[in-house]
Amino acid sequence: MKIVLATTNKGKLREFNEMCKDEVIPFRDILGDLEIIENGKSFQENALIKAKTIFDKLGGDDEYIVISDDSGISVPLLGGEPDIYSARYAGVNATDKDNLFKLVDNIKAKGVDRTLAYYTASIAIVSKYGEYSVHGWMYGDVITTPRGDNGFGYDPIFIPQGYNKTLGELENSIKKSISHRSKALKLAKPIIKLLNRNIF
Ligand code: IMP
After folding, report:
1. Is the CB of 99 within 6 Å of ligand 1?
2. The pTM is what?
3. Above 90 in pLDDT, residue 85?
4. d(CA 199, ligand 1 centre) in Å
5. Which of 3, 40, 120, 195 is the most exposed place for a label (fewest CB within 10 A)?
């Protein structure tokens, strides 16, 4: 069986490849460019939309297990924003930097320079045996002065609980051990393993 990852996000691809022993193939390598309309109302719905779309495009083939990740950051002070809109917070064609600075501006507008935040990752697994989804979270604070270049997205302003450095400053190996994505993947792995052995 081939495990196909339904994402084009380079940061996510790198993290998945680092966390998986089996090789994960980005869908673009098989299907080329493809626009997926993420119109779900939750991380879970969007993750399932992505994985199902790719699985269908692959012809619903026995050979494939498709996994996807829909993720983002939520800031309770801002009513939970940007949440499922994390990738397009500053507009549909916004870069990671545009989104980060919009979040910084909105936090500053509340008169603070540090506030609680958390990342969510929903991983969907779709194969001919059905659909599964799992979640992982990472709690911490966001600050209004970006620090460090590691990770991607909002990592330069996110300080995980128990640390005093941002994910931009911390080693990738530390992020790998505590991240929302690695927690979700830990739950996804036994499901993928069983599907891979055709046990269902
Ligand atoms: P998605 O590709 O539609 O799931 O959007 C995910 C967006 O959430 C990314 O573009 C990032 O802005 C943000 N995000 C998700 N996970 C992380 C992470 O681990 N670090 C930093 N930003 C993240």
Report:
1. yes
2. 0.94
3. yes
4. 33
5. 40
